[in-house]
Amino acid sequence: QVQLVESGGGLVQPGGSLRLSCAASGSIFSIRAMGWYRQAPGKQRELVAIITKSGSTNYADSVKGRFTVSRDNARNTVYLQLNSLKPEDTAVYYCNLQVWTTAGAIDTYWGQGTQVTVSS
């Protein structure tokens, strides 16, 4: 059993900032990567940012320079700092965890989602 607990969403004005957190717990053999996806109403879920165990990162073009993903490996926690927020960033943000199994496969887990609303 693996659990992901997210926190930090909310309502913010355009230009504002938020920080999302996601803590993983449970039977985790080895983490491959952690990150964030988002889904706006009527749209598909999309990658926002991801960070590997070694610290390599990948960002969606729409958030580069504004969002920063980071990890605390000791706490199995991933963070997303959202700066210079725009109304189009409004979405439910989902934590994503990829883990290696003992058989060498990759399992994927999702958090419950946290709402980010950018509005004046």
Concise structural overview:
This protein has no helices and eleven strands.
Can you describe this structure?
With 120 residues, this protein is mainly β. It contains no helices and eleven strands. The chain has strands spanning 2-7, 10-12, 18-26, 30-39, 46-52, 57-59, 67-72, 77-82, 91-100, 106-110, 114-118. Strands 2, 4, 5, 6, 9, 10 and 11 form a seven-stranded mixed sheet that branches. The protein has a four-stranded antiparallel sheet with strand order 1-3-8-7, with no helix packed on it. The radius of gyration is 14 Å and the shape is elongated. The protein starts with a strand and ends with a strand.
Structural descriptors:
0% helix; seven-stranded mixed sheet; mainly beta; elongated; 11 strands; 120 residues; four-stranded antiparallel sheet
Uncertain stretches of 5 or more adjacent residues: none
Cα gyration radius (Å): 14 Å
How many H/I helical runs?
A: 0
Structural class: mainly beta
What is the element layout, followed by pairings?
Elements (H helix, E strand, L loop, with lengths): L1 E6 L2 E3 L5 E9 L3 E10 L6 E7 L4 E3 L7 E6 L4 E6 L8 E10 L5 E5 L3 E5 L2
